[in-house]
Amino acid sequence: MRPAWSIIFFTSISGLGFGLAAWLVLGFVDLANPQHLLITGIATMALIVAGLLSSTFHLGHPERAWRALTQWRSSWLSREGVLAVLALIAMAVWGLYYTRHGAPPVWANGLIAALMALTVYATSMIYASLRTVARWHHPLTPVCYLMFAASSGLVAVLLVLAVLGQQISPPLLLSAMLAVASAWGIKIIWWQLAGAGGSGSSLATATGLGSLGTVRSIMPPHTSENYLQHEMGFVVARKHAAQLRVMALLVGGVLPMALLFLLAPVPLVLGVAVISHMAGIFVERWLFFAEAKHSVTLYYGDTH
Amino acid sequence: MTMLPEASAIKLGLVIDLDICVGCQACVVNCKEWNTSGYGAPLSDDDAYGAAPNGAWLNRVHAYEAGTGADARTVHFPKSCLHCEDAPCVTVCPTGASFKRAEDGIVLVNEDWCIGCGLCAWSCPYGAREMDPAEGVMKKCTLCVDRIYNDNLPAEDQVPACVRTCPTNARHFGDLGDPESDVSQMVAARGGFDLMPEQNTKPVNKYLPPRPRRAADDTPVSLLAMAQDATPSGFWKWVDSTLEKLG
Question: In this structure, is the dihedral angle defined by the CA atoms of residues A68, B92, A198 and B64, taken in order, positive or negative?
Fold first, then answer.
């Protein structure tokens, strides 16, 4: 599948935003100071909105994007849109309540955090629900998205704490390192398992000619690349996949963990930790698309 | 609305005979011609006369070799939307632009609602949908909905353009929901099959397999013997008998 930059940015940055938002409403940062609340709230919502806006860049008709909020009964893409809007509204209401009445009740915090998680889950299900892409159609796909949202959100929480001059407790620092480690751990398992069994489809089933013997493509239906091949036949960097996976692990996993473990948790160090973790997630997300094979490529002679 | 309707009694679709198709591409061209000039946005092409032309087409003809050695055969393979009963392209659509008609099962796109996100094309195992490069909306086979119900056309033209134009009669149109229809009878008689049944899309369109090879007669035919056995008549009979007398 073609890795569109707008979609890579959307899934990574909105994941970070929702992860951070969830940890914020769960009380990981003291927001009693209205200024702190305002700055943190706006920064978090800006991440989410930037991600959502980015997702509209690949549309043929972005001005009609509001229509995507209508089909939540059947479409994960629509559900993602609706949940994202609800999550943003919930966060704004949560912030307003905080300024008027102090910290909201625990059940409300839990509910809003769950809404954030559900939104990230919906994002992942846009891809995981597609039977046509065997690698994505795996139960661990949503787990990967949720884990990366949680880990990047938690590393960002550390940065927020440091910037606001608040105490970073050793258990919290350790939790962030564990979150980063387990997110990549799940990803490594996903790399091994997802799509390993193939899609069950082959050129034999795609043409129904398997009973006649081996089927092979002898002539394409058109002389130059078409939309299907451009969109779903992306093969450019598959040969570099192994190196890119190592690079993602080093930049997105080993480096931020080393920074958190070895250096003092000051804003500069934590800022670099967030950026390197996100850079790793970008590479991981790029591979998520670039490595995925779509069943339509079978018709063009791709042997899965 | 992108919820799928209750399964319709009428299931309009195509039956494509892989035994007959010669890969002439006439259906491809007539499909483009009809669908670029009727409803909705034209089916555009990008760089149509340049080095890398690219455009939206609703029907493509692949060619495959099936089998190996002396048994191998070339199979021309037309592919367009299969108007699936469980069409994933309909349910994934976030806007309601992609829909399946309750009355006859045709899968269509409302071009005024389509945001061009492309998710329906991702969800289709068959590659039946292509984005229009100029209009930014998804294009797909409409089963020529603007022909089949069009009373302004003569009766013989009230079939999809690809069916009407096929010079070898490899494409058939009809109601696959009616077991008595010509197309259903044909599917039953010839062992018509679904493409990628494992994708659980329940396609309405069916494909008919190439017919089994006829067994060859083992006795070689000698053209020389045939020529020698022939009894001459007329002028050649006179030449023959005269030469015999001389010889």
Answer: negative
Task: Provide the domain limits for residue B185.
Answer: 12-208
Please give the residue of chain A at the shortest CA–CA distance from B139: A227
Q: What is the DSSP letter of A219?
A: E
Q: For the domain that residue B38 is a member of, what is the CATH number?
A: 3.30.70.20
Alpha-carbon distance of B61 to A288, in angstroms, equals 31
Q: Which residues on neighbouring strands pair with residue B16, listed in sequence order? A: B171, B207
User: Do B94 and A75 lie within an 8 Å CB cutoff?
Assistant: yes
Q: Is residue B240 part of a domain?
A: no
Tell me what pLDDT residue A40 has. Answer: 96
Please check whether residue A143 is in contact with residue A186, taking contact to mean a CB–CB distance below 8 angstroms: yes
Residue spans per domain, chain A = 5-300
Q: What's the rounded Cα separation, in Å, for the pair B244 and A199?
A: 77
Distance from CA of B128 to the nearest CA of A (A): 9
pLDDT above 90 coverage of chain A, percent: 87
Domain covering A5-300 in this structure, CATH number: 1.20.1630.10
Report the domain count for chain B.
1
Of A68, A213, A219, Cβ closest to residue B94: A68
Residue B1 lies in a domain: no
Query: Beta strands of A139-274 (E only): which ranges?
Result: 215-219
Neighbour-count burial of B147, counting CB atoms closer than 10 A to its CB (0-12 exposed, 13-18 middle, 19+ buried): buried
Query: Which pLDDT score, from 0 to 100, does residue A304 have?
Result: 53
The ipTM is: 0.93
In this prediction, the residues of chain A whose per-residue pLDDT falls under 70 are 303-304
Relative to beta strand B206-208, strand B12-17 is parallel
- Chain B interface, best mutation among A10, A59, A71, by max B CB count within 10 A: A71
